[in-house]
Write a structure and sequence with these properties.
Elements lengths: L2 E6 L3 H13 L2 E6 L2 H10 L4 E5 L7 H11 L5 E5 L4 H9 L4 E4 L4 H29 L12 H13 L6 E4 L6 H11 L7 E5 L5 H9 E2 L11 E2 L1 H4 L4 E5 L6 H13 L1 E2 L8 E2 L3 E6 L3 H6 L5 H7 L3 E3 L10 H16 L5 E2 L1 H9 L5 H15 L4 E2 L26 H15 L4 H8 L3 H12 L1
Parallel strand pairs: 1-2, 1-3, 3-4, 4-5, 6-13, 6-14, 7-10, 10-13, 15-16
Antiparallel strand pairs: 8-9, 11-12
Helix pairs in contact: 2-3, 4-18, 5-13, 6-7, 13-15, 16-17, 17-18
């Protein structure tokens, strides 16, 4: 992905240096030497990001930032200056700049800033693409997994998709078995037919049978009209039965008979009905163990275990966590917090490190919660559930000597929080609970 960076810098030597380093970071660079030319570029050919000096001939840097916000409220902006005052810094932070750099510019800091900028733009582009895909009901990124265990699962799914065999998906609750089932249906010859699903563990035994097989009028108290079951409604398509291990032995007996005969009898009915449906079943506990415990019929197990596919838990495919996180941000961001456009690097790190006992479903819930709590444009570690937040260091792990002065401790902590926020000073000041001008002043004092 190539991103356009507009650089507004009136010092020709400095501008050349900035253009070279930005190009090394993978940006397509446009350089202008005064504020009025930068305004024309912003309004005529809006770039993906803006790097501007504070003082420029014509319109100054703050005017350019305001113009950038009018063009694209989420456009990343970097402000460079050798003349900043506290008032300028506060105004820049309030306008939502990504970073403020002080001249003379250090090459290492500049390279790191442009690297973060490109990562920010790439993440934003991915989220925009996911949002557009969601509008057309595109499947979640589970189908583009980078994890070997999930790739194997998807390969097996693709191989069996167009075969008229039942499929058994085994994996933990929330691992994505329903998504894999829908994927198999979408690749099958039945893709134009219905795809229905039923969570067997969510219904009592009597209701489960009526939902599956349907009933005739008068079959039981409250059956005031005939109702076809899901097996019948899925004729020509696919029926996904989740948590099949939760079904009663009576329901298992009726299901076994249907699989053998391809016919069913509604509750209270006297006439068998032929149904053409493909079954995909899922279990959140190993069916072999359920058979041994007497909770699942062995003959039904042999019928449904023809083509088992293990669906790995999220902790076994950590490579997928960043793209799943971005997907859920795109899916829920517009409704819960349209101001959020990405995740801080530290946030992604914590998401990847966590073991996710609730799997993909728990990850989705964590992103939804973070969106509600987020006060800025990116999801910060502080927005995550308590289990994922940083654990305060114990006294035995304090990373400074016991004789350190209060000033030294403060300097260390400011830098620590700034690093955790990926160098984003706006986010760091919010986490520290101080005004951006205070953070700006303290950092200037450290550099001085």
């Amino acid at each position: 992905m190539i991103f356009t960076l507009l650089i507004a810098e009136d010092d020709a030597v400095q501008a050349k240096l900035l253009a070279r380093i930005a190009a090394e970071a993978g940006c397509d660079v446009v350089v202008v030497s005064d504020g009025d030319a930068a305004l024309a570029e912003l309004r005529g050919s809006p770039p993906d990001a803006l790097f501007t000096d504070l003082r420029l001939p014509g319109a100054d840097g703050l005017a350019l930032i305001a113009a950038a916000r009018e063009v694209d409220a989420a456009m990343p902006v970097i402000l460079a200056t050798g003349y900043a005052t506290a008032h300028n810094a506060v105004e820049a932070f309030h306008l939502g700049v990504m970073d403020v750099l002080f001249k003379p510019l250090e090459l290492d800091a500049l390279r790191l800033t442009f690297k973060r900028l490109r990562e920010n733009l790439a993440q934003r582009r991915r989220i925009d693409q996911l949002t557009a895909q969601l509008a057309t009901h595109t499947a979640p990124p589970l189908m583009h997994s980078r994890a070997p265990a999930m790739k194997q699962c998807l390969q097996l799914a693709a191989q069996v998709a167009d075969k008229e065999l039942p499929v058994l998906l085994e994996g933990e609750t929330g691992a994505g078995k329903g998504v894999v089932a829908a994927h198999i249906h979408g690749l099958s010859n039945r893709r134009d037919g219905a795809f229905l699903n039923l969570n067997c563990g969510a219904l009592p035994a009597t209701l489960l049978e009526s939902e599956l097989f349907g009933f005739e009028k008068g079959a039981f108290s409250g059956a005031i009209a005939r109702k076809p079951g899901l097996l019948e409604l899925a004729h020509g398509g696919t029926l996904f039965l989740d948590e099949i291990n939760s079904t009663s032995l009576d329901a298992q007996t009726r299901l076994l008979q249907f699989i053998q005969d391809r016919r069913l009898m509604r509750l209270g009915g006297v006439k068998p009905i032929e149904v053409d449906v493909r079954l995909i079943l899922a279990a959140n506990r190993p069916l072999k163990d359920e058979v041994a415990a007497g909770r699942f019929r062995q003959d039904l197990y042999f019928r449904v275990n023809i083509f088992p596919i293990p669906v790995p838990p999220l902790r076994a495919r950590r490579e997928d966590i960043p793209v799943l996180s971005e997907y859920f941000l795109a899916r829920h961001g517009r409704a819960l917090n349209p101001n959020v456009h990405g995740l801080a690097p530290e946030t992604l790190e914590r998401l990847v490190q966590y073991d996710w006992p609730g799997n993909v479903r728990e990850l989705e819930g964590a992103i939804q919660r973070a969106l509600v709590l987020a006060g800025g444009e990116i999801l910060a570690p502080a927005d995550l559930p308590a289990d994922l937040r940083p654990v305060p260091a114990s006294f035995t792990a304090i990373p400074w000597p016991t004789e350190a002065t209060l000033e030294a401790v403060e300097d260390f902590w400011l830098r620590h929080v700034l690093d955790r926020c990926g160098g984003n000073r706006t986010q760091a000041s919010r986490q520290l609970g101080i005004d951006p001008s205070t953070l700006w002043r303290k950092l200037k004092e450290q550099e001085g």
